[in-house]
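Service request form, structural biology core

Requester: graduate student, group of Dr. S.
Request type: structure prediction, single chain
Budget code: on file
Notes: please return the result as structure tokens.

Sequence provided:
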Amino acid sequence: MFLRALKILFPAAIVIAVSLVMACGDDDDEATPTPEVTATPEATATLRPGDATPTPTHPPATTEAGMELVEFTIRPNVTRARPGTVIFKVQNAGELAHQFVVIRSDLPPAELPRKPLDAGVDETKIEIVGKIDSIAPGSNAEVSVPVDAGKYVLICNEPGHYKAGEYLAFTVTRAATIAPQTTDVNVSLFEMGFKLSKTTVPRGTVVFHLKNDGKLPHDFSFGSRGGGSPMLQAGQSATFTVKFATPGKYTFICTVEGHQEAGMIGVLTVT
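Core staff response, request fulfilled:
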């Protein structure tokens, strides 16, 4: 009988790739950031003959799912979750008011039952499990929804919005893991703070698009947990790519002396 090996992934160190998209602009003596740094290799463990293969059990999960609403689409930072509770954190980034409706349905997202005269989805003929009635432009709202394994559809049911394509498929699965995703986050740096387009992201690769909108030099750093970007002069931009292998809360700062204490600090949540 052949031995079977089970690879057990321990929380891996974050792999960082920094891509500078700006003109150098100065002649300082700082070393050029290494394009890619790989830290400690992943550890493995092997079962001995006769060892039972463990059968994992997964308790109900709590998943934060960021959703951005614009005319006329829903931009998610995650489209899958495990059974448990999903906290939908919704931002209206458009110029019109939007709704956010969570529907349990096996139907394709574009084929939900409709009201006459294109007045939207007929909510009497669907199973609504969560809803935010109206979100004003520039506002945020959230709704917590208990979910079982199955298919869901997220829509805006303001008149004409569903017809225009403002809907999204969302899946709840009992799988032990959700495949890592790639997420883009825009980051504005200024005196004395940061503005991120998303503060909650799924596990996987995050590409931070940085721009120094201030007048002083700034950078964007996760410190020992993820390294940092190059120093950006006023008006300069860069991309900073981080692979988050482990869910959790990650603190970011500006490392310029005194800037963290003045308010350039924040937290990114990885789900």
